[in-house]
Design brief:
12 helices, alpha/beta, Rossmann fold, seven-stranded parallel beta sheet, 386 residues
Length: 386
């Protein structure tokens, strides 16, 4: 049995954001392969309460290290950057330096923590926490789960007018962080190719997407069109696109469609008789079961659109934008995709009115996710064998 330390600055519970779901799914996948996993939480944000995560991890498998100390130059730089972002005048400090998000003493603290604990591998979530790997003893395999390509994220945010974004790194800085690892995990194939070109062969690169429980193909008799999302700015922009460009067409061409919006995004969008707001939903199984189809209107973003993988794992017919399909285009095309509002609405109408078309797309989702999960499992097994 492999003993793994998983280091993250993100609480996992409640699972109300994509990054939390990513860590939840990855840790569960490791456990399913027989690994023993301890979580080392980097206590960074005052508003985050790790109590539920500690309970989920189990007795003796959750630890915490304070991660709030910053050097004086970093403190000043962050203050200047914040002011420039407010003024939309970013003439300096547009990108982060590699380690400015971590306590300068973190490498020493991690090294002290792991002494005599017998870990075979240390995994770190995100390259900007890679300093945690600096003092790891020889013989322990070091792994970074990148989640996305940090050096392309700022332009994705700027595309939706969002300036206050902290995690962007320049390409050479991202490379420096990834070189601290023995293995680097991309969340989708295109990003693995990006990392392969960036890194020497001594650093192994893998793709592990989202492994989720899989459902059998089926079609709901309802007319419900589901969009599930968090308050992530990319989701809010995608909803705005749906409401302004697609929804008016849908209401004209398919008035029987019942649009349901669920998740924390509901706190950031206005009430409207054109759709139902469910808010935070505890029972996702029931939510997906009643939905006829799922939509994903997001037009920006890096990494993998985790809510897409989730919808497909439930074998739901899905209509998505082109960008929303990132990382999910290998082999069988598992969803309908278009950036044209009228075609998007037409796809929804057809899936609501045509049981055979809806079932066919549900079967494609099931087939795709079965192969997708097998591919993720092979990569995970290879990493665990290092």
């Amino acid at each position: 049995m492999k003993k793994i330390l998983f280091i993250t600055e993100t609480v996992i519970m409640p699972i109300d954001r994509g990054n939390r779901k990513r860590n939840f799914n990855l840790i569960n996948s490791l456990k399913a392969k027989g690994a023993e996993v301890d979580i080392l939480y980097l206590d960074t944000y005052s508003e985050d309460d790790p109590a539920l995560t500690k309970e989920w991890a189990g007795e003796g498998h959750f630890y915490s290290i304070r991660n709030k100390k910053r050097s004086f130059p970093v403190f000043i730089k962050r203050k200047i950057r914040k002011l420039l972002e407010i003024l939309h005048f970013q003439v300096a400090f547009k990108y982060f330096s590699l380690d400015e998000r971590v306590d300068p003493d973190l490498p020493a603290h991690v090294a002290d923590f792991i002494k005599d604990k017998g870990y075979d591998q240390v995994w770190v979530s995100c390259v900007y926490n890679s300093a945690a790997l600096l003092n790891i003893p020889e013989g322990i395999v070091k792994v970074i789960d990148t989640v996305n390509v940090s050096s392309v994220k700022r332009q994705e945010y700027e595309a939706v007018g969002y300036r206050n974004y902290e995690f962007a790194l320049k390409k050479d800085v991202e490379k420096k962080g990834l070189l601290r690892a023995d293995a680097v995990i991309a969340i989708q194939d295109e990003e693995e190719r990006f990392f392969k070109e960036m890194l020497p062969s001594s650093v192994r690169t893998f793709t592990i997407g989202e492994n989720l429980p899989l459902c059998k193909a089926a079609v709901s008799s309802s007319k419900k069109v589901l969009f599930l999302g968090s308050t992530y700015v990319i989701n809010i922009e995608g909803f705005k696109f749906f409401k302004e460009e697609i929804l008016p067409v849908l209401k004209k061409t398919c008035p029987e469609a019942e649009v349901v919006i669920a998740g924390s995004i509901c706190s950031r969008i206005p009430d409207d008789p054109a759709y139902e707001k469910r808010g935070w939903v505890e029972d996702l199984d029931a939510l997906y079961e009643e939905a006829r189809l799922v939509i994903n209107p997001v037009r920006h973003g890096a990494g993998l659109n985790i809510k897409m993988a989730e919808a497909l794992s439930y074998a739901k017919p899905v209509v998505s934008t082109i960008r929303g399909m990132r990382g999910l285009r290998a082999g069988v095309e598992p969803a309908l995709s278009t950036d044209d509002p009228e075609m998007f609405a037409l796809y929804i109408r057809n899936l609501i009115r045509d049981d055979a078309a809806a079932l066919e797309l549900s079967k494609k989702a099931e087939s795709f996710m079965l192969e997708y999960t097998k591919k993720n499992d092979r990569a995970l097994e290879e990493i665990l064998s290092l």
